[in-house]
Automatic annotation (TrEMBL):
InterPro entries: NT_sf, Polymerase_NTP_transf_dom. GO terms for molecular function: nucleotidyltransferase activity. Keywords: Transferase. This is Nucleotidyltransferase domain-containing protein. Residues 88-123 form the Polymerase nucleotidyl transferase domain. Transmembrane segments: none annotated. Pfam families: NTP_transf_2 (PF01909). It comes from Flavobacterium urocaniciphilum.
Length: 300
């Protein structure tokens, strides 16, 4: 029942999928297998097909919601590409990708444009601090079109939390700049194939950005012992601020939602990953109770 778990997962976001989309998330070799599975689910009235989309729990309004979000995403993507190109020129940025809802071709008035950033080794916190200062000073701290909340460095390309949520995020990530770095990134995260065996990263449109003189000058200054000092300092300052600001998070949640190591910086205080996995497991339990279908629950 791989198709059903995929439909349940995206129903959390009220985002119905097409046959081709659902098939891409399964380990079925032939799309006919997926189609047959969906037909059986329809006959048991677990899902319903509306036009080209498969809907769980009779959420018929999710179809026009998706279609409207797809149209808005086309406009937002034009902005996102320009911002990604801009971010790629910042000091120590090695690669930039578009993540979040926009990477799944959805955008609405409540959405942000999320960027996934890979930095140079041992310079993550300098890179992050410069980008955050730019956002605060020049964008008045608005994250609407400039949400930079997930950084990793080239020293640790493998994503530590390996579950359906992170696998989906990697599968839908849209690499924009840093082709060679993204090649290494996907090699380091080949565990995604355990969830989605047909996934192949498409790097054909990924470019490499020429750094401007100012960026090269900043990098020259910090490519020394002083750079390591400031990288550690910025990390300590940020971590101290977060521990004070997000006291409501327990230690385990803090370590995941606001992971702060030499090579990783996450700023997800709502712990969205945990919320999504728990919501999926709740739907899996609902299906078991209502239709006597047993699906394996996911790890948080």
């Amino acid at each position: 029942m791989e198709s059903l778990k995929t439909i349940l997962y995206f129903s959390i976001f009220r985002y119905p999928l097409t046959l081709e989309e659902i098939h891409s998330y399964t380990n079925h070799n032939d799309i006919a297998e997926t189609e047959n599975e969906l037909t059986n689910l329809e006959s048991e009235e677990i899902i319903k097909k509306i036009d080209d989309f498969y809907v769980y729990n009779k959420d018929l309004d999710s179809v026009p919601k998706r279609l409207k979000g797809n149209l808005e995403a086309q406009k937002a993507m034009l902005i996102a590409k320009k911002r990604a190109n801009f971010i790629a020129k910042f000091p120590y940025v090695k690669a930039v990708g578009i993540s979040g809802s926009l990477s799944k071709s959805y955008y609405d008035k409540n959405s942000d444009i999320d960027f996934f950033i890979i930095t140079d080794s041992n310079k993550l916190w300098i890179c992050r601090t410069i980008l955050i200062l730019f956002k605060k000073i020049f964008l008045l701290n608005s994250k609407k079109y400039f949400c930079v909340n997930y950084f990793i460095s080239t020293s640790q390309l493998e994503i530590e939390e390996q579950n359906r949520f992170t696998a989906t995020e990697l599968k839908t990530l849209i690499p924009m700049h840093g082709k060679e770095v993204f090649e290494e990134f996907y090699k380091a995260n080949d565990w995604v194939a355990a969830y989605f065996s047909k996934f192949i990263s498409d790097l054909s449109q990924v470019t490499n950005t020429q750094k401007p003189f100012l960026t090269k000058s900043i990098e020259f200054i910090f490519n020394s012992n002083i750079g390591q000092f400031f990288d550690n300092l910025f990390k300590l300052i940020t971590l101290k601020k977060w521990k004070s600001k997000f006291k409501f998070l327990n230690q385990d949640d803090f370590k995941i939602a606001l992971k702060s190591t030499q090579n990783i910086s996450k700023h997800h205080p709502s712990n969205f990953q945990k919320k999504v996995i728990l919501a999926l497991n709740s739907k899996i339990e609902e299906v078991r109770n209502n239709f006597n279908i047993i699906l394996q629950k996911e790890n948080v």
